[in-house]
């Protein structure tokens, strides 16, 4: 983070402002959560790369959820509406 932004935060007196150490800690936690980064040999990954990979990972998760939802909807459409299987599928879609 630039020193100008740090000074700006300090001067504003905003007690809820996040510190550089907190940002570093949060980026480190994200790095451990994202498989693409976690599986790399190198510990040194830029914060921008971590954030970029995090966004990609979340986008992929959204796509997976959408695909699974579509598949469950198709399965439900081809299942007897009163069956136990249909009830389970409906509960998964809610």
Radius of gyration: 22 Å
Number of helices: 5
> Helical content, roughly?
over 70%
Overall residue-averaged pLDDT value: 84
Overall structural class, as computed from helix and strand content, comes to mainly alpha
- The share of residues in extended strands comes to under 5%
Please indicate the count of domains: 1
* Low-confidence residue ranges: none
Cα separation of the termini = 42 Å
Describe the sheet with the most strands.
none
How many β strands by DSSP? 0
The secondary-structure element order is: HHHHH
Overall body shape: elongated
GO biological process, one term: regulation of DNA-templated transcription
GO molecular function, one term: protein dimerization activity
Keywords: Growth regulation, Nucleus, Transcription, Transcription regulation
InterPro entries: bHLH_dom, HLH_DNA-bd_sf, PRE
Structural description of this entry:
Keywords: Growth regulation, Nucleus, Transcription, Transcription regulation. This is BHLH domain-containing protein. The chain is an all-alpha fold and 94 residues long. It has one domain. Helices cover 73% and strands 0% of the residues. The protein contains five helices and no strands. The mean pLDDT is 84.
């Amino acid at each position: 983070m630039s020193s100008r932004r740090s000074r700006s935060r300090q001067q504003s007196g905003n007690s809820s402002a996040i510190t550089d150490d907190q940002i570093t800690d949060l980026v480190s936690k994200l790095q451990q959560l994202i498989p693409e980064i976690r599986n790399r040999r190198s510990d040194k990954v830029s914060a921008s790369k971590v954030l970029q990979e995090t966004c990609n990972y979340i986008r992929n998760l959204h796509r997976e959820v959408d695909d699974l939802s579509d598949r469950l909807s198709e399965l439900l459409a081809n299942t007897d509406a009163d069956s136990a299987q249909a009830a389970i599928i409906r509960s998964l879609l809610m």
